[in-house]
Amino acid sequence: MGDLIQPRVLKGFRDVLPDQEAARRKILETIEEVCTTFGFVPIDTPALEYSEVLLGKGGGETDKQVYQFSDHGGRDVALRFDLTVPFARYMAAHSRELYLPFKRYHFGKVYRGENTQKGRYREFMQCDFDCVGVDSPAADMEILLMMHRAFTQLGIRGVEIRLSHRGIFNRFLDHLGVRENSVEILRSVDKLKKIGREKTLDLLRSLVSAEQAESILSFITPRDSNAETLAAMEDLAGGPGEDSGRVSTILSWADSLGLGSSFILDPSITRGLDYYTGIVYETFLQEIPEIGSVCSGGRYNNLAGLYTKEQLPGVGSSIGLDRLVAALEELGRLEDQSSAADVIVFCMDDSLMAQYLGVAQAFRDAGFRAEVYPENRKLGPQFSYAEKKHIPLGIILGEEEHSRGTLQLRDLRQRQSIPGLSLEEALARATELIS
Amino acid sequence: MGDLIQPRVLKGFRDVLPDQEAARRKILETIEEVCTTFGFVPIDTPALEYSEVLLGKGGGETDKQVYQFSDHGGRDVALRFDLTVPFARYMAAHSRELYLPFKRYHFGKVYRGENTQKGRYREFMQCDFDCVGVDSPAADMEILLMMHRAFTQLGIRGVEIRLSHRGIFNRFLDHLGVRENSVEILRSVDKLKKIGREKTLDLLRSLVSAEQAESILSFITPRDSNAETLAAMEDLAGGPGEDSGRVSTILSWADSLGLGSSFILDPSITRGLDYYTGIVYETFLQEIPEIGSVCSGGRYNNLAGLYTKEQLPGVGSSIGLDRLVAALEELGRLEDQSSAADVIVFCMDDSLMAQYLGVAQAFRDAGFRAEVYPENRKLGPQFSYAEKKHIPLGIILGEEEHSRGTLQLRDLRQRQSIPGLSLEEALARATELIS
């Protein structure tokens, strides 16, 4: 054997240990259940695609972050960097097999060779859900309700879904006569939460007149209530429109569903340079707002324009699993390490292994998660193994129990044993102890 | 807007449409449930790794199939081509955080630039489960039981787990005096199921004497019962040993658990050139044996030797999801397109949208999957949408129902309506209709 190879992972990539992976899978399961509860259907797409498909024919700011290479056949290929572009391609490719409105979810890993400072990863999981093929406030609302339900189901209270509408913002910039600077203005406004009012004002003053900068800052400032904010936005944008009417409708539906307090009209939400055209939103956790948005999205008027002439309006959201996990960890909601099994059958004597396997099977058939310690060792290491896996119950079946035809059930949390049980009794007691 | 980009996917890669993706996710869920039922814990590893880590310092036959490239930082990286090598690296990297025996499962996509003829994919999903850190027949047995339970839970009857033991095979080759040809002999034996006895014999005759070739063919031929097969194997291998004793133990446990008929001792199973050293197995479906093995694996004596001096024996299995899905499709077990929602609230009047959202929410709170049709269109297209998603129940709430404060529940399968219901009554009737 030669030198050992160092078992390292690439910078920005991670191994996930069992306790955390179990927690991650539970979160994914919860989000998936919310998606199916709203009638959304799953799809899948390849992680590797033609570069042209993912990046278009030009090249943008993202390109440097993309894992792009030449495959065996000399094809220019790349790893996907989000789930939106593959979804757009998918809709164009399968329009004849699909139906509209198409409500889909897609959970998958994406790849970005970003700077790994400040806890960014180069491989991370996104959970996207979109409703495509219809431009209606009801579709917007369903996405917002899904976001709300996901956080509720995850046991997170104090969720703030902060929303706005790009259409009102654009009308306001028109009205102010600064529409041609909109890209830079959006970029500055987007920094408000990070750099504060004064610095944002400085940035804006370098783009427009001092008076206009003040006006922009006024526009993006929420008032005391959603109604007042909306009135101020309409006022500064030159009056009401379809856009502000839609926002009003959405907020009134939220009220009528008893969820009004979770939805905050916040005109500083613009989703920066993204391709949104209608409502836009970000989600903050009141307990740790500093972690930033854990779920965001908005309405776009043309998903798949790169690939098809069919105009596909839609609305969607994306949950970044990794930031959400970080948030839950910080809130101490990931601590409760769940058990890897309900029952462990300890090995006291190799010659009784057939019995151990049978007992474990009986527990499984009764709906328990059960495992057998697969070799005869001292009880100390076996107990310590059970503890590492947070297993609450053990079965002890040695020479003595075997000769009497009984089992001993041990509550590993309380360190108490119940001897002299038949298998049926052990199953019954286990049910009591675990439920 | 310039020319459209063709929304194509790479050869050997696939989009998955919703019905099939839903079925795939159900299968994965079932396999995962089996893993957790046996106390196995989940892990995750990156899809992209250092090439050296995945390929070792030399280069083997697989290398040409590996997606390997240079990343932004000039690192030589590759997409994983299986889950075993990353698992070996993981065990070496985290030995201090983990405990032994370590029972883990890992489901993930792997990448091989293989020839795409005969329905092979370049991106495919593997479901691996292994028990590492112990060399005992009980650990072997648990993996075999998991395989059996997975297929039972998937509703597949007539599963044949065909197993053998590499140790007995090696002893037999020693005894026959042809051990130095073992690589070529294994390769020939491995082809038996594909090319038949005569051609296998021809291949063997080119490697060893005619008499020896006959002896090898005799060795790999199952007899009328497992006991007779084992006796013949022991006889040809020069007598009983720990290896054949272990096989005997495993088969007797299978009998005592009432599963004996699913386990067939088949000495032609060798897993070819793989790194196995103990028991080896493949799984065939009696209804479609021609699809080949849908789950295979075995025992190895040193998982992570490339990365650590710690000797890690283990036993594991791998289910290829794609071949399994193909098998289930062929058996017609994937046809039953499951519903994407239980209830759809049709949109009869945009001004009643607040009511529709409320009704859907009430259904969700009662445990139904419910969606709202998000805009006012004729009922025809709305019904056809519901049909495409296999949704069994609809709610009709128009002007008339609204003025009376009632709902109409429609059984979309039977095309029957139940008018004049309160929300509570509709929930109760829906429960009856769906359960």
From TrEMBL, chains A, B:
Gene3D superfamilies: Anticodon-binding domain (3.40.50.800), Bira Bifunctional Protein, Domain 2 (3.30.930.10). CDD domains: HisRS-like_core (cd00773), HisRS_anticodon (cd00859). GO terms for cellular component: cytoplasm. InterPro entries: aa-tRNA-synth_II, aa-tRNA-synth_II/BPL/LPL, Anticodon-bd, Anticodon-bd_dom_sf, His-tRNA-ligase, HisRS-like_core, HisRS/HisZ, HisRS_anticodon. It comes from the Bacteria. GO terms for biological process: histidyl-tRNA aminoacylation. Homodimer. Belongs to the class-II aminoacyl-tRNA synthetase family. This is Histidine--tRNA ligase. The lineage of its organism: Bacteria, Pseudomonadati, Spirochaetota, Spirochaetia, Spirochaetales.
